[in-house]
Sequence to fold (989 residues):
Amino acid sequence: MTPDWKWWPDTGSWRLSTRIVLMSLVLLLVVQSAGLLVVRASIERNARGQIANELELGERVWRRLLDQNAEKLRQGAGLLAGDFGFRAAVNSDDLETIRSALDNQGARIGATVSALLDNQLVLRATNYTPDTPDLGTVLGQIAMPLSRSESGGTVALVGNTPYQFVMVPLRAPLVIGWVLMGFPIDQTLANDMLALSGLHLAMLTQVQGKPPLVGISTLAPTVLQALQAAGGNMAELQDDGDVLVARQVNLNAVAGSVQVVLLRSLSDVVTPFQQVQVLLLVISLVGVILFGLGSTWAARRVTTPLRSLVEGADRLGSGNYEQRMLYTERRDEIGDLANAFDRMRKSISISRNEIQQLAYWDRLTRLSNRVRFRGLVQEAISQRDSINSKVTPLSVITMNIDRFKHVNDILGYEVGDRLLVAVAERLIARMGEDMLVARLGGDEFAVLLPRANAAAAMAVAQAVGKSFESPLTYDEHTVDLSVSLGIASWPQHAADVDTLLGRAELAMYAAKRKTTGVQLYDPALDSSSKQTLSLLSELRHAVEHNELRLFLQPKISLATGQVVAAEALVRWQHPTRGLVPPDSFIPFSEQTGFVRQLTLWMFDEAARQSANLQLPGQALRIAINLSTRDLLDPDFPARLETLLSKHGVAPEAFCLEITESAIMDDPMRAENTLKRLSERGFKLSIDDFGTGYSSLAYLKRLPVDELKIDKSFVMAMEREIDDAKIVRSTIDLAHNMGLTVVAEGVENAAIWDLLREQGCDEAQGYYMSRPIPVSDFVLWRERWMHRAEA
Amino acid sequence: MRTPLLLSLLLGAALPAVAAKVQVQLQDGAGRPLSDAVVFLESREAQAAVKPLQGAEIAQVNKQFDPQVRVVTVGSSVSFPNHDTVRHQVYSFSPTKTFELKLYAGATANPVVFDKPGIAVLGCNIHDKMVAWVVVVDTPYFGRSGADGKFQLDNIPPGNYHLRIWHTNLPVGAPALDQPLALAATGSSVSVRVPGLTP
Fold:
């Protein structure tokens, strides 16, 4: 469980540099504080230790001072004792001379007291001016000890004044007496002591049984009072905020006690240390600032490259692989990291290029693929959109190889692939430098013409189409291929890339259907366009409201002249637009699939009318056109059966006409459907024979009963010998295969006669009749029969 | 200060000869044999028989007097030859004979005549360590105790004498011990204890 409060700040969100700097500063502060505390504690301790040392030293200095004084005295006394004249005077007991000599020498060395003792230590003489009234008393106490010590003096209290005494023997040459000298320990000595050692001094004297008295001193009067109150026996003395540390020195005086108190001010000792402390504090502060700056600099040296690397990584994330990483020249860990990043950048860049190659390029033809093509077209469009000036149009051509599936089926995929490469090469050869060629998939290619309107694109497309008229060669084979091309232009046909591509493809499929080779997009081709949608609903409306009419064009037996059959055709009697030509809605309904309904309507109508059209002894077969879509609908035969039984008509009364191209779109399924229809008894006919590419070998497999020679051959046969030959050979071929032959496009008697000579079975054309409504057909047939009989 | 006397009298047959033998055994205060003590016998007869000594001297050798103790009869002259390479200034403040001699290196001053009995302490004013004693006796009978503390004199006429004993370790200025000695013709042997000697 986390507590509600924390004494530490939330460092998780801090920048790395902030953390490094703060951590360093905190550690430094801890160390410095510890140092300062230790210094402070040791200053107090050391100061007291130093004072103790100074006081101890002071005691030695003090004693040394006394010794020096004693030595000086002793030397003076010794000088006197060694003086021959003085010795002579002593020997001759010349008291006057002795006293004057004592006076003289005492004055010379500053002794207050000079005296001569005999060798029994009895006072023989003193100087003339001794201000020591009690000397006699003291003498008894100091003479014996002094005579026994070779050196040194002794301190004795004379009255309340401490005196220092020395005594030297008088030899002649044996000891015949003693010279004693003494002087008071006075203020001068205390001052010397202060000057020498820096220690204050106070002297306390005490005669047995009396209170101690303060003698000489260097202390201020207030301190002196405190000292006196304490009786001299204290370790410390308070003085106006300061502390005086004291040390007692007992001088072992004779005739009373003499105690010297040495004092040292604590603050005098501590003050310099306090200055050092302040200096230390200043150094610490400066150190913290310098350290802060230094660690900030150091941290920046780490974090600035890190940030740069983060930015670099972000650039990689956003797909920019071009910019090199910074700091790769550094030879530390940062440099290693930067180099690692840079290697990563390069390898990602390479992999990305590979991925792009895979994603945007077709491996077989090395052309752009659909994704890249779409992207580039989009880019071209958006560039134009953004310029928004006078728009340069662009166009897209899509190209598809006709029946490429066959090539793959027959020659194998390997050859197919090679052909695709050859097609791509040929396509590229036809294109200008600014044009982009792509393989959209399978056998479909596309070209972007970035500065071409529809007309210019049409020219290019036609040139391409033409280029494929010469066969492709690979290895030792030559293959004839035809292509279908669709064109759509921006902004004329579409506003966005997908619509543009879709419409170009739509046009391409239309071209394939119509076998026109090249097709420019037209809204009419597009089942999804607005126009189309409205047309579609109108067509539905037409079916539901009986606006469609069944027209018939007769097929006449060339041998008998009898009307043996009629091709059913649909016409649209529009309530407002009048009779709509079939070209206006048939291709459209084929594209949209509505043609299936049309076929069924036709069949229904034809079956309904069939009975009325039959004449006794002369059956009329009604031919109905089927579209590709009908053939691909597996339920189609069943639907026809339903209609037949609905009207009670036999299938033999119908002929189903199928174009070659309708079969070739999906030959397998078409064959399957045709077989089922044939089995049911429908007669089957190949429409527009000769325009497609169907081989006779293939047609032979189909259950076909009839061939309809395309009207283009028939119409030209009286002028073109070639066409006539085609018609003739087609007729012969069909007869050889057991098929009947129908010729379309019979427009005059000459053709009629030619066909009859060549043994064509049936004829159809304007020469006999246009497609006419059923009621007119009945009338026309009567007239034709009369004429034939006539 | 008088030292108690221990006296043992050996009585022997008085010989017709005029000479007798004196034997003295000296001890310090602790009873140990006392060597180097000056012993002399005084009497009126002896005083009359005194003659000055000839050729007595105290030399200065290696900044020491040699000998340190010289016993002479009254009226003797003592010369102070200086054998050192340094100067000496020999003096005496003793009442027996007060004098001062400046003795240059290698020089010999005029002899000093000691004309009064007593003990003169001699020092050198330049070298305080130098000390010598001249014991001036008013008798021809004197001598010094040996290392065993024994002292012996022959051919001394029997009679009553003052037996005097002095030693350098006696207090400064103290006179020689004095005790009567009746010298028999056969000779006398006494034992004397000398107290008050400084170590």
Confidence is low (pLDDT under 50) at residues 1-17 of chain B. Residues 44-48 of chain B form the longest helix (5 residues).
